[in-house]
Amino acid sequence: MTNPSLGRRKSKITITASPKGVKIAENALVRLGFDSKINFAKSQIIAPNTVTKFFRCKPIQPDSFKRICDALKLNWQEIYEGIEEESEQLERIDCSSPDINEGEEQTQIIRCRFVICKSNKTTIKGVIELEGDINLINNDFQAVIESLLRESSGDTVKIEDIKEGSIKIFIKGSQEDIERLVSLINSGEITTINGLPVKDIQVLSESSDDDKSTESDNKWHASIKDYEENFISLINSGELTTSSGFPDEDIQVLSDDKWRLVQEIVSEPREERRLINTDLSDADLSGACLRYAYLRNVNLSDADLSGADLSGAYLSHVNLSNADLSDADLSGGYVDFVDFSGAEVKYVNLNNMKKFCILTSEIADKLMLVSEILDRPSRDQSLSGVDLSYTKLSDANLSGVDLRDADLSGTDLRRAYLCGADLSGADLSDADLSDADLSSTIVTNALFGGSLGLTEDMKRDLESRGAIFGDRPPVPVS
Questions:
Q1: Radius of gyration of the chain (CA)
Q2: Are the C-beta atoms of residues 398 and 380 closer than 8 Å to each other?
Q3: In what helix (H) or strand (E) does residue 199 lie, and over which residues does it extend?
Q4: Does 349 map to a domain?
Q5: Are residues 170 and 89 in the same domain?
Q6: Which of 5, 49, 69, 188 has its CB 3.0 to 4.6 Å from that of 247, i.e. a possible disulfide?
Q7: 334-338 and 314-319: which strand pairing?
Q8: Which helix (H) or strand (E) holds 164?
Q9: pTM (2 decimals)?
Q10: Is residue 168 one of the residues assigned to a domain?
Q11: What is the C-alpha to C-alpha distance for residues 130 and 198, in angstroms, rounded to an integer?
C-alpha cells in the first residue's frame, strides 16, 4: 500500500529578532510600563520561555513574534533579522539495492534548512559637507566621525573617503540608514558633527553591494526577495500552516483565532473540552483546566503547561516538545503517540495512566519508567543506576526494589513504601521523604543531604545504617 505521506513536506517556520530590534523592543517594554518580561508574557498569554527567546535573538514562531511586536506597538518588519524554514520530506528509497527485500516499501526522511536574512542589498552613497579646515584633521577624525554617524543613523554607515572643499565626507550604507541620516540633517536634529557645522548632505547614487554580480546572482536575489515577501504577506495576514509535528498532519489556523482560543481556555475553565487539529504552540496555559479533554493532532510545542490539570484527558498525536509540564497532572489519562522531546517534566503526575505510548527520547524513557513503577510495582525489580530525579513517585510501592546508585535527587517520595529496598550509593539529596517507610531499607553510602520530611531521630537511625548527611565521608562497605 502506498504511504499517503510520501512526497509530502512538513515544515516549521521561525523568525529571529535582530540585536538592534531587541534594543528597540526593550525600550518599548520600559516605555509601556512593563516591569518585567515575565509580566509582559503573562499579559499576552505567551509562554515566558518564548518571550525570553525573542529577547535573546532566538528563533520563535511567526505568530508569537508578531504578537510580541504588536503588544509593544512596534512594526515587526523593523524588528526581525531573518526567517528560517526547516522542512522534512518523506521519499522512497531505490529498492533495487540487494539489501532491500522485495515488496518492502523503503523510505527516508530528507531534511533541509533554509534561512532568509532581511533583504538589504541596496547600498546608497552620499556626501556630507562640514565647515572647517581639512588640514586640522588628525588621524582619529575618521573613526570618531564614523562612530557618531552610526550611533545616530545605523550600523551600516561607513566612511569611504574625506576630501577638501571645506570637509567632504563620502559615505555609504543601507538605504534605510542613509535615508535616516538625511532626514536627521534636513530636519535640523543634527546640525554639527564632532563640533563641526553641517553645511549639506547629498545622496549620490544607489549601487549593489557587489558591482560584479552576475545575471544569475541577480535572479537568485530576486527569488529570495519574492520568497521573503511571500512570508511577510502570510505573517501579516495571519494565514500560516503550522505543523503538528506528525506526518501528514498540518494545522491550518489563523493566528487571531489561535490567541482567542488560548484566552478562552485560560479565562473560561471547563472539563471535557475538545481540541482537534489545533495550534496552541507558545501559549501560556499554566494552571489551565483541561480535565477529561479530548486532544488530537494538537501542537503544544514550547507551551507553558506548568501546573495544568490534564487528569483523565485523551491525548493522541500531540506535540509537547520543549513544553513546560512542571507539576502538570496527567493522572488517569490516555496518552498515545505523544512527543515529549525537550520538555520540562519535573513532578508530572502519571498515576493510573490508561495508556502511555510516547515517541522515543531520553525524557520519554524516563517518563515511561515512572509510569511503569507507579502502575506495575514489582518486588525485587532492578532499577540500579537509573535516573528518577525530580519525578513524582509519591505513594509508590518500591518495596524490595534494587535502587543502588540510582539518582533520586529532588524526587517526590512522600508516603512511598521503601521497606527492604536497596538504596546503597543512591542520591536522595533534596528528595521529599515525608511519611515514607524506610524500615529495613539498605542505605549504605546513600546521600540524604537537604532531604525533607525526616525527623532528627530518623536521621540518626539512617546515619547509624550508613546514610550520609552533609559532608560526612562514606562508610566503608564490609
A1: 31
A2: no
A3: strand 196-208
A4: no
A5: no
A6: 5
A7: parallel
A8: strand 158-164
A9: 0.67
A10: yes
A11: 5
CATH number at residue 162: 3.30.70.1890
Position 363 in a domain: no
Q: Are 411 and 393 in contact (CB under 8 A)?
A: yes
Kindly list the distances between the CA atom of residue 369 and the CA atoms of 269, 362, 387, in Å, as whole numbers in the listed order: 32, 11, 10
What cell does 431 get? Answer: 528528595
The range of the structural domain enclosing residue 188 comes to 122-208
| Angle, vertex CA 57, rays to CA 53 and CA 59, nearest 5 | 65
Q: Is 24 helix (H, G, I), strand (E, B) or coil?
A: helix
For residues 292 and 306, give the distance between their C-alpha atoms in angstroms, rounded to a whole number. 17
Grid coordinates representing 418?
521503601
Residue 440: which region, alpha, beta or left (left: phi > 0; alpha: psi -120 to 50)?
left
d(CA 342, CA 364): 9
pLDDT at residue 9 in the model:
43
Among 58, 91, 117, residue at a domain's last position = 117
Q: Which residues pair with 41 in a beta bridge?
A: none
C-alpha 47 chain-centroid distance: 9
Instruction: Count how many domains the chain has.
Output: 2
Q: Hey, which bits of 98-157 come out as E strands?
A: 107-117, 122-130
Of 192, 208, 224, the residue at which a domain comes to its end is 208
Average pLDDT over residues 259-279: 93
Written as nine digits, the cell of 392 is 513524582
Distance between CA atoms of residues 416 and 159, nearest Å: 72
- Which residue, 451, 447, 477, is CA-closest to 463? 447
Task: Tell which residue, 38, 18, 25, has the closest CA to residue 68.
Answer: 25
Q: CA 88 to CA 424: how far, in whole Å?
A: 47
Sign of CA dihedral 194, 196, 199, 204: negative
Tell me the C-alpha distance between 374 and 331, whole Å: 11
DSSP 8-state class, residue 263: H
The phi, psi pair for 87, rounded to 5°, reads: -135, 155
**pLDDT tens by residue, 408-437:** 999 999 999 999 899 999 999 999 999 999
Q: Among 53, 21, 27, which residue's Cα sits nearest to residue 304?
A: 53
Separation between Cα atoms, residue 354 and residue 352, nearest integer Å: 6
Residue 390 belongs to some domain of the structure:
no
- Pairing mode, if any, of strands 294-299 and 274-279? parallel
What are the grid coordinates assigned to 207, written together?
549601487
Residue 408, classified by CB atoms within 10 Å of its CB into exposed (0-12), middle (13-18) or buried (19+), is buried
The predicted-structure confidence for 62-120, as pLDDT tens digits, reads as follows: 889 999 999 999 988 888 887 776 654 444 434 344 444 444 444 444 444 445 555 44
Whether 10 contacts 243, CB under 8 Å = yes
